[in-house]
Amino acid sequence: MTTGNPTPWAGGQEATRPRLRGRHRCDVVVIGAGLTGLATALELLTLAPELTVRVVEADRVAAGASGRGTGLLGPRLGPSLQVARKRYGDQVARAAHLWSVAAVRTVLDLVERHRIDCDLTPGGQLVVAPDERALAHQLRERDAARLLGLPPEQVEFVDRELLPPVARRYLGGLRYGPAATLDPAALTERLARAGERLGLVVHESSQVRSVRRGLLATVVTDGGELIADQVVVAVNAYGGALAEAPAGVLGVRVQAGVTEKLSAEQLAALAGLGAEPLIEHGELAPYFRLTADGRLVVGGGAVERGPHGGLAPRPGRLLAAVRGLSPVLADVALDSTWAGPVAVTRDGLPVLGADPADPWLHRAGGCNGHGLAVSVHHGTLLARRLVGAGPSPGELPWLRPDAPWLPGGRVAGRLVDRYLDHLTAAAAPAGPRYGSAAPAASRTAVSRTENPS
Ligand SMILES: Cc1cc2nc3c(=O)[nH]c(=O)nc-3n(C[C@H](O)[C@H](O)[C@H](O)COP(=O)(O)OP(=O)(O)OC[C@H]3O[C@@H](n4cnc5c(N)ncnc54)[C@H](O)[C@@H]3O)c2cc1C
Q1: What pLDDT was estimated at residue 12?
Q2: What's the CA gap between 291 and 247, in Å, rounded?
Q3: Ligand 1: distance of its center to the CA of 367 in Å?
Q4: Is 444 within the bounds of a domain?
Q5: Does 207 lie in the same domain as 313?
Q6: Is residue 434 domain-shared with residue 321, that is, in the same domain?
Q7: Residues 6+ apart with CB under 8 A from 90
Q8: pLDDT tens string 131-167
Q9: What's the pLDDT tens digit per position in 285-322?
């Protein structure tokens, strides 16, 4: 079993669970040991303890996005409420938001039920408007929430003068609930351990090369084979050569970082960011939360194509964002920065469903960078589906086995690169919020720590 703290910035984690060797028969095989796969396995064994369930992981538990996340647990699914209303109508727009609220509750419930120690701090999520354009968007979003009948405790506009002191330079904000912050790597590792206590077998260092179809499915790795009735594909953006991964999902890497431990004075200036992270409105805009041990986690600023590679592409921007947040952070250093994959779909909605040609083959993924709540929720729903309950395919636009078509090949890849470069350039540090970002000459401002990918 993995020991120690799996937090992304802890580093040095290795696969310690056994590789898959030989041929075994089981009821369900889950491919991928992230939040989606492990939540599926745990819920399955909770609902039907007699099942034999194995998780097969190419690397180690929490090696993917689940172990590299920034820990903002909150609602929202797919496009903004105003876009969702136009595109899908009010019924689906409301259902999408309520789905994401249910997803947050699923995580809170799971943590409670299995007594999972992951620094969970309940609170809200505050998305703040840096300029008039963002403010106008937020006011339209508030109106859309009202028209959809969402209660203020789920979506509420916050006037500038009521923003917390650290956010006073913003023009207003939207507060979302229910929400929380937590350590996603710890949650992932502990979901695995909770499953193992119920009989789950997790194989690490066991990349699935193919799934053979027959009377039963055969999941093939270099070292062994698992023969199963049902197969769950929970590989996030790493689908790659695996034919069973959902179509229409593109892997891109986003970056994050964490500061050294902050002083009492610094923590006082950031009070509230533990329970309520601050998210600046806008593509790749910075966002912040405090950890239980008094560090500031920061994300945003750059994005690159491809799921593999653990180095933050632009770590300087993370530092600049931190130092621009408050004058008390003018001299702070980042202890660690890293990157991880998010699975992007053309319409921004995830994927959850069985393959129509092979109903024993289930897929969940495509959470577009907001999957902390949704991936766990989808895992538990998938488990319910496997034992005969759960949502039916096609009821809602994201209940589907694949995402809408995305162009592939080298030309399309280059176009995507150009678009992502453009996004990254547009997110370049500018204006007073980054004003105090000059690196302190006397210290290593950013240490580039790579997580294995
Ligand atoms: C830097 C960063 C910050 C983020 N912050 C947040 C946040 O604050 N809030 C939020 O809601 N979401 C956030 N996310 C998104 C969230 O982490 C993901 O949506 C979620 O973890 C996805 O979980 P998963 O189980 O689907 O994928 P993963 O955790 O990526 O798991 C997939 C697993 O499948 C394995 N795999 C792939 N192919 C194979 C194969 N062929 N055989 C065997 N195994 C295979 C991989 O090795 C991997 O371990 C963030 C993501 C990143 C990268």
Answers
A1: 65
A2: 36
A3: 9
A4: yes
A5: no
A6: yes
A7: 147, 148
A8: 999 999 999 999 999 999 999 999 999 999 999 999 9
A9: 999 999 999 999 999 999 999 988 899 999 999 999 99
**272 and 323 share one domain:** yes
Q: What's the gap in Å between 109 CA and the centre of ligand 1?
A: 21
Q: pLDDT tens for residues 176-201?
A: 999 999 999 999 999 999 999 999 99
For residue 208, the ligand 1 atom closest to its alpha carbon is 42
What pLDDT does residue 11 have?
Answer: 65
Task: Looking at the CA of residue 256, tell me the nearest atom of ligand 1.
Answer: 1
* CA-based nearest residue to 191, from 118, 129, 134: 118
**Domain of 331, in residue numbers:** 250-344+407-453
Residue 96 C-alpha to ligand 1 middle, in angstroms? 21
Which atom from ligand 1 is nearest to the alpha carbon of 343? 19
Tell me, yes or no, whether 174 lies in a domain: no
* Each residue's pLDDT tens digit, 326-385: 999 999 999 999 999 999 999 999 999 999 999 999 999 999 999 999 999 999 999 999
Q: Distance, CA 308 to ligand 1 centroid (Å)?
A: 12
Q: At what angle do helices 184-197 and 371-386 cross, to 10 degrees?
A: 20
Token pair listed for 440: 């302190």
Burial zone of 418 (CB within 10 Å; 0-12 exposed, 13-18 middle, 19+ buried): exposed
Return the residue whose CA atom lies nearest to atom 52 of ligand 1: 69
Ligand 1 is surrounded, with C-beta below 6 A, by 31-37, 56-59, 63-66, 68-72, 184, 207-208, 234-236, 238, 242, 254, 256, 299, 340-342, 365, 367, 369-373, 375
Q: Are residues 208 and 62 both part of a single domain?
A: yes
Token output for 270 = 């950031």
